[in-house]
Amino acid sequence: MIVYLFILLAVLAVGSALAMVINKNVVNSALFLVLNMVSLAGIFLILNAQFLAVIQVLVYAGAIMVLFLFVVMLLNVGDEEKLFDKFRVKYFLAFFLAVGVMGQIFYSLAGVTDMLPAISENMAAIGTVEAAGDVLYTKYLLPFELTAILLTAAVVGALMIAQHKIKRTENI
Amino acid sequence: MVGIDWFLGLSAIMFTIGIIGVLIRRNAIVIFMCVELMLNAVNLSLVSFASHHGNIDGQILVFFALAVAAAEAVVGLAIIIAIFRNNLSVDVSKINLLRW
Fold this sequence. Notes:
The complex is a heterodimer. Helix content of chain A is about 75%, strand content about 0%. The longest helix of chain A has 26 residues, at about 50-75. The termini of chain A are far apart. Chain A is an all-alpha fold. By secondary structure, chain B is mostly helical. Helices cover about 80% and strands about 0% of the residues of chain B. Chain B starts with a helix and ends in a 13-residue tail after the last helix. At the A-B interface, helix 1, helix 2, helix 3, helix 4 and helix 6 of A face helix 1, helix 2 and helix 3 of B.
């Protein structure tokens, strides 16, 4: 049962990723990416990472992709008309390069396939919100606080960059 | 149950699709979304290793990667807006100010 669920979600994830790449319309690409993230959240649930599955839907599909769609509609970019209507050497080059990268990853995976861990006994207990919060607020407290500083800096930086006209004082 | 090699294979395939997207697309926003896809693929392999080892540290790393991804998306989209304001285009082949 779990195997069929995994195959369904994996096909959905790969299919939506491919559809995102080859779609000409930017809004459709963004919506396919949302589908990809939701199916990845399902795969996280198969791996018993419930906390991360919820975070994936909330933060990625909910916040980041809404930001993307907001920018797409703000800029009003048109379709990429000339995506596949002409033969390009660049596409074949990109394809072979990417297949080379994938072959390399699979080759290195096949080399260590006897060293990969089997399913752990306490897998069901580690992905819960309780377990994650327990570690997050004790062992990883300093990185957690630094994340707050990082997010504040990102917001201030984004405001500075996207501002229409930065007022400069005279005495610089 | 599904073995860990299937999750790692799925992660590799999604990473490859992200690479292809970055290389062939010319819209800066779509390139950015493909980078997010590659980030997600790596997150998947981290979560699968964490679950199969029975150790939560990998999942905490994914949590921090999510926070960094959110910050990165905010700054990147602000840069795209600034570029659009100057060039009236987000086509990366038309943004050639620093190109020789």
